[in-house]
Design a protein that fits this description.
The complex is a heterodimer of chains A (136) and B (401). A two-stranded antiparallel sheet of chain A has the order 1-2. Chain A has one domain: Sufe protein. Chain: A. Chain A has 136 residues and is α+β, with helices and mostly antiparallel strands. In chain A, strand 1 and strand 2 form a beta hairpin. With 401 residues, chain B is of the alpha/beta class. Chain B has two domains: 125 residues, Aspartate Aminotransferase, domain 1 (Alpha-Beta Complex), CATH 3.90.1150.10; 254 residues, Type I PLP-dependent aspartate aminotransferase-like (Major domain) (Aspartate Aminotransferase, domain 2). Helix content of chain B is 39%, strand content 16%. Chain B has 14 helices and 15 strands. In chain B, the strands form four sheets. Chain B has a seven-stranded mixed β-sheet, sandwiched between helices. Classes of the chains: A alpha+beta (136), B alpha/beta (401). The interface between A and B is medium-sized, with 16 and 15 residues. Chain A: InterPro entries: Fe-S_metab-assoc_dom. Chain A: It holds the Pfam family SufE. Chain A: Belongs to the SufE family.
Amino acid sequence: MSELPAAARQALASFSAASGWEARARLLMQWGDRLQPLEPALQTEANRVQGCESRVWLIAERHQQGWHFRAYSDARLLRGLLAVLLARVDGEDPTRIAQLDLADWFAQLGLSRQLSPSRSNGLNAVLARIGEMVQG
Amino acid sequence: MPLISPWRGDFPGILALQREGQIYLDSAATAQKPQVMLDALLGYYAGGAANVHRARHLAAERATVAFEASRAAVARWLNAQSPAQILFTSNATEAFNLVAYGLEHEFQAGDEIAISALEHHANLLPWQQLCQRRGLRLVVLPLDEQGKVDLPAAATLIGPRTRLLAVSQLSNVLGTWQPLTELIALARAQGALTLVDGAQGIVHGRHDPTALGCDFYVFSGHKLYGPDGVGVLHARSEALARLRHWQFGGEMVRVAHYHSAEFHPAPLGFEAGTPAIGPVIALGASLAYLESLDPAACLAHEQALHAHLLTGLRARDGVRLLGAPEAALASFVVDDVHPADLAQLLGDQGVAVRGGSHCAMPLYERIGLPGSVRVSLALYNDGGDLAQFFQALDQALELLR
C-alpha cells in the first residue's frame, strides 16, 4: 500500500468509503472534473482509443523518472474512470508499469463492474492501449 | 388506469430479473421467453435428440416432424402460401447474407442497390460489401423529420438502374413504421427485387409479406419471444427460384460425386449442415403461444405502454426524442448529458436500457449525435416497469446536471 502514488492512495481512501451507486457516481464525476482537458490539437484520430462508445483520447510520454499519461473523454463518468486510472499509473516506474494489474486496481476501488466484457464504455480498450504503449 | 400485463407471469425470465431488482426494457435487442418455449426446448433434448431429414429411426422421424411443423407454423404466422417459402438460417444476419450471396450473379457493374439511411448494420453491410465486390452503387434513401423514408426523394433515387431495394419495416432506433407499400411499388415499377427487414416489425402485430408485395422478408426468432440461433427468410416462390446455392455441405446436397454435385431446391438446399433443431422446434412453441393470445389485447397493451413512455419522456425538461416513434421503442438524448453517462447510471440502478448507436452507426453520423438511450417494450412490461424507469431517469439526471 505504501508504494502507491499519493493520488492513488487518495482515490483508494475516498472510493472505499463510498457505498452505493450514487456515492460512487458522485465521486467519479468529482474526479473526472479534475481531469485537465486535452487541447484540441491533441484530440486527434491517432490519439483516440478505438472501441469506446464515447470519444476517448490517451497520450503517453516516457520520461526519465516515469511515464506521464494524459487522457480525456467527452463522457463525464468515463472521465472519472480515466482520472482514477491515471492516479494509479501516472509517474509509475517504467520497469514496473507493465506488471501492474489494473483490473485489480479497479476492483480495489469497487469499480469492477466497469470492466465487465459487456460494458461498451471502453475502459477495457483504454487498459489494452496502455498495455501496448508501455510494452513498446 | 394501471398498466398491467396479463402475460407477465408466462415469462419466467422477466420474473427472475425482477427478483434481482432488474427492470428489463431492452426487448428490441432480445426478448424474454415464454415458459412453453423453454418446455419445448427441454422436451426435445430430454425426449431424445436426433438429426433431421435423414435417418429412419423413431427419434429422427419425431425430430423431423417437429422441425417441419415449425416451418409450417412460421408459414402460417406470415400467411405464406407454402412452408417451402420458409428458410431457416442461424440468425437474421445470415438471412441477409444468404440473399446477398444468392443473388450476386444477377448484378452487373453500375447496377444500384437502394437502402434507407436508418438500416441496422445487418441490412447495410451485406449490400455494401456486395457493391464493393461487383462494382455496384449503394444508394441511401434519406429520411424526413419524423424518421421515415422521404418518399419524394425515394421516387427520384429509385430508378432504372435499381436492381434491389432493402429496407426496414420498423426502425430499431426511431420506432417508426416505414412506408413499405409505397417504396415497394416504386421498386417494382423499375423491375427491382425487394427485401424487408422485419426483425423489429414482426414483433408488433401480424404481417403478411405476400400482401406487402416484397420478394424477401427477414426476421430473427429471438426477438419474437423465441430462442436464439434461428433466423427466418420468407421468399416469394419466383424470387426463391432466382437464388443460387451459397453454402455447401451436408443436408443441402442431393447427389454428390468427387468432382460434381447436385443440390436440393429451397428450402433444404439453403440449409446446409445440421440446423438448430431444438431452437427451431422451440420457435414453433413460441408462435403457438403467441397465436393463443388475443391480438387486439396485445396491441392495445403495447400501444398504451408506448404512449405512457412517450408522455413521460416528453414531460421532462431537456429530453429530446429521436424522430417521432410510433411503436415498440423510443430513443432519446438529454441536453448537456452524454448518452453513455445516462445509460451507465440507469444500468447502475437496475434499469436495462440500451445506450450507444444501436448497430446503426451511419444513422448517428448523419443526425450528428454520439448515440442515444433506447427504451424498448414488450408484452410482459407493465406500468410498474415504466414508473421505475422514470424514477431512475430523474435520479440520474439530477446527479448529472
